[in-house]
Design brief:
The chain is mainly α. The chain has ten helices and five strands, in the order βββαααβαβαααααα.
Length: about 240
């Protein structure tokens, strides 16, 4: 049996600043994370967005309608207690990055991959000082120890709050390079999302639209956009 949705139990939603950051309050009581930690947002714009998410709940609480809150509590409840594991997980995406595996059978698709993905790898080399090797086919290739170490170092520079958003960008796109490009505003998030979805969009163009695949691509676009907005609110 599914758990019944929690109903809205408060009247007034507000926020306040203190030494720990910015609290969101419901009828004057501080919001807590699912693990029971008193919730604090690190920046005022993020706290305002989260306050508005809570205030927009009408009769029942819909967690899917509160992405900024979800990213923030994920940082507190999940990233902070296991930061090293999260950094390792994201760095491993770079060791097997989506952008490094090119089509071996369809030359048109391979050309499209080269045109779309290579500029991101060139950006990584110029900006991050990381040079990744590319491979044909799906068999895993090995990146240099220097590249893997450098990528982990770049990931480790992000705060716990930032890692929460970066985690979604990387895991949804399948690419650490695209995730870092989004986090650093190298390209518009729509362009980065299309780069991540290149293979699926190619198949859709070749074979026609599929409802299930289309819904999945739309959901992934939403997640990427929300994660990018969350990181932007952390910087302002």
């Amino acid at each position: 049996m599914s758990t019944p949705a929690a109903k809205r139990f408060w009247t007034t939603t507000s926020m306040k600043a203190d030494d720990g950051g910015f609290a969101v309050t419901l009828d004057g009581r501080d919001v807590k994370t699912p693990n029971g930690t008193v919730f604090r947002a690190p920046t005022e714009p993020l706290a305002v967005a989260i306050r508005d998410e809570w205030d927009a709940q009408v009769e029942v609480i819909n967690p899917d309608a509160m992405p900024m809150f979800k990213f923030t509590v994920t940082a507190v409840d999940r990233v902070t207690p296991q930061r090293d594991a999260v950094v390792d997980e994201l760095a491993n995406y770079g060791a097997n990055d989506l952008l490094c595996y090119r089509e071996g059978g369809d030359q048109q698709l391979a050309n499209h991959q080269d045109e779309t993905w290579q500029p991101y790898l060139s950006w990584a080399e110029a900006t991050l000082d990381v040079r990744l090797s590319c491979f044909v086919g799906i068999m895993p290739g090995e990146q240099s120890p220097e590249a893997k170490q450098a990528l982990r170092g770049h990931v480790d520079r992000y705060s716990d709050f930032e890692l929460s958003g970066l985690h979604s960008l990387v895991t949804v796109s399948g690419s650490l390079i695209l995730g870092l490009a989004a986090a650093q505003n190298h390209q518009p998030i729509d362009a980065i999302t299309k780069a991540a979805q290149l293979d699926e969009l190619w198949q859709q163009e070749k074979w026609g639209y599929d409802d299930e695949a289309g819904a999945r691509l739309k959901a992934h676009h939403t997640l990427m956009t929300e994660a990018h907005r969350y990181l932007s609110l952390l910087k302002t």
